[in-house]
Amino acid sequence: VEDAHASFRPDPEERTRELDCLYAIGRLAGEGHLPVSEILQQAVEIIPHACSHPEVSGARIAFGDREYRSDSFSETAWKVASDVVAGGVRVGAVEVCYLNGSVEPGPFSPEKRNLVNAIAGQLGRIAERQRAEDALHSLERKYEALAESLPDGLVAIDPATLTVLFANGLAADLFGLGSADELAVRPCLDLVHPDDRDRFRELVSADPAGAGLREMSEFRIARADGKEMWTRAQGARTEFKGKTATLVFLKHIAENERVEEDIRRLNEEFEQRVAERTMQLEAVNKELEAFAYSVSHDLRAPLRSVEGFSQILLDDYASWLDTQGRDYIQRVRSAARRMAQLVDDLLRFSRVTRTEMTRDTVDLSAIAETIAGELQSTQPERKAEFVIAPNLSAQGDAHLLRVALDNLIGNAWKFTRKRPQTRIEFGSTEANGQVIFFVRDNGVGFDMAYADKLFDGFQRLHSPADYEGTGIGLTTVKRIIDRHGGRIWADSTVDEGATFYFTLSPEESGK
Ligand SMILES: Nc1ncnc2c1ncn2[C@@H]1O[C@H](COP(=O)(O)OP(=O)(O)O)[C@@H](O)[C@H]1O
Ligand SMILES: [Mg+2]
Q: How many angstroms is it from 13 CA to the middle of ligand 2?
């Protein structure tokens, strides 16, 4: 053995073959797409060519529970072996042998041992890679199984390139494609209805504010069969094979659901618009009311001067004036009084709209009695009969209802002035389960052609020469009735009196 060893001379050609072998196996191992079994089968055929006598050399690789042999392999005593170790564990072995009756029997040179060790080392690295790949594959298979078991279509999209990275079978169904693989080769915008692409792009590429599902979005799928289909989608940011990806969960929306969705959205938009308009109107109203209030308020002081100084003129300078002069001053005074009345009425109107409302049970009959008493006492000489139904009450604001009845009964009193016998009635009837109150008089009445105008500001059907007034009373009453949710209307025949009806709560529909 010693002699044989001593006679051995390293042969440069052989070293080159050994290096070639290592290089070839290294290349094989680097071929990422080859399955490990293929790599090992090829490696085992390469090894004999690196030996001194390739024609009588054989190789065997045991790997896990499988074995790979070169064509020439058979068991002999002349062999050298090395364990394949991965992660500190023996996972197999490499054996190189010379066949029986070989031309050059004897021990293997140290170089051959080194070669076999080096090959075993390379195979160890392959084994390690395979373990990692196995782990990854089983993880991927788990994910795939999970994705397939979802009740939704699922597509993973690269937000940068908008390409499909992965899809499940349900998604393929939704898109009208045979398999998920067909989906994965398409630019995903092609899959979406042209009108909805912006929305889809937004869903896919929007930077998520945090983890979790992003907002719902709806869009139409442009199916492979040319049909379009509404889907509801949610996106979530994730990592897919080391890259940022957006997961899009898709649900088909049935036609009727879609319509409901439209109606819901339209309703929402409509309500939003109504709310906005109402707010604008309220703001404008408030401004106008505030304006009316401050104007009427500020007019009072100059009016008081007109009244005061004209009084002084009459008292102290009457002798300087002739009859006509005194008459002019009287006219100035009566105009100022009228104006003061107007200002007072405007202020009252403005207060009616501005004050907070309270709701109590209000005894309307008692209020009417009080008003009747007061009116009679202002003109005790008038022959008047008040017919007031007892115990009429309503839910409302006591102060506002007092103002309303003041105006209505006050009008009745005013427009019956020329009757020899005044009759004013306050009572109630019922219609559709709702109480309707009324104030009726036997006065001059009015032409029903103008009945609607009565409740507008400053509208008067009678001349101030006959019946004084400002035309704000009924406007005030209407505002009060409005605030209670009720309705007011009038009925009259010229010269036969008038009846004013009102309710104090909203009509109940369906009754
Ligand atoms: N009871 C009534 N009978 C006849 N006409 C009425 C009656 N109440 C109101 N009106 C008509 O409606 C107009 C508006 O009433 P109102 O707003 O109270 O103003 P004013 O009492 O200051 O004239 C009156 O000028 C009158 O023409
Ligand atoms: Mg009036």
A: 129
Mutate which of 453, 454, 478 for ligand 1 pocket (most atoms within 8 A of beta carbon):
454
Q: CA-to-CA distance for 194 and 37, rounded, in angstroms?
A: 48
C-beta separation of 494 from 442 below 8 A? no
Position of tokens 């080159």?
A: 16
Nearest to 221 by CA among 197, 255, 247: 197
Which residues does residue 440 pair with via DSSP β-bridges, in sequence order?
Answer: 425, 499
C-beta separation of 58 from 72 below 8 A: yes
- pTM, to two decimals: 0.51
Closest ligand to 409 CA? 1
Query: Within a 10 A sphere around the Cβ of 337, how many other Cβ atoms?
Result: 14
Residues 493, 494, 499, 500, CA torsion sign:
positive
CA dihedral 191, 194, 196, 201 (to 10 degrees): 60
Pairwise CA distance, residues 101 & 317, whole Å: 162
Report residue 110 as tokens.
């140290």
Residues 6+ apart with CB under 8 A from 465: none
Question: Is the torsion defined by CA of 334, 339, 342, 348 positive or negative?
Answer: negative
Distance of alpha carbon 99 from alpha carbon 72, whole angstroms: 9
Q: Which atom of ligand 1 lies at the shortest distance from residue 415's CA?
A: 3
Q: How far apart are CA 123 and CA 115, in angstroms?
A: 12
CA distance linking residue 206 with residue 377, whole number of Å: 79
Per residue in 318-327, is it b (16+ CB within 10 Å) or e — as a string?
eeeeeeeeee
3-class secondary structure, 129: helix
Distance CA(328)–CA(317), nearest Å, equals 13
Q: What is the mean pLDDT of residues 244-251?
A: 86
Helices (H) and strands (E) in the chain, counts: 12, 16
Structure tokens at 9: 């001379």
The owner of tokens 């106008």 is 288
- Is the Cβ–Cβ distance between 46 and 71 less than 8 Å? no
Other C-beta atoms closer than 10 Å to the C-beta of 81 total 15
Residue 410 CA: distances (Å) to CA of 370, 372, 377, 379, 393: 12, 9, 13, 12, 20
Per-residue pLDDT, averaged over 321-336, amounts to: 91
- Ordered DSSP codes for 367-429: HHHHHHHHHHHHSTTS-EEEEE-TT-EEEE-HHHHHHHHHHHHHHHHHTTTTSSSEEEEEEEE
- Which 3 state secondary structure label does DSSP give 511? coil
Closest CA to 407 of 381, 358, 371, 364: 371
pLDDT per residue over 337-378, tens digit each?
A: 888 888 888 888 888 877 888 999 999 999 999 999 999 999
pLDDT, averaged across the chain:
86
Contacts of 193 (CB under 8 A, 6+ apart): 219, 220, 221, 222, 228
The CA distances from residue 109 to 105, 338, 444, in Å, are 11, 135, 140
Ligand 1 atom 21, closest CA: 469
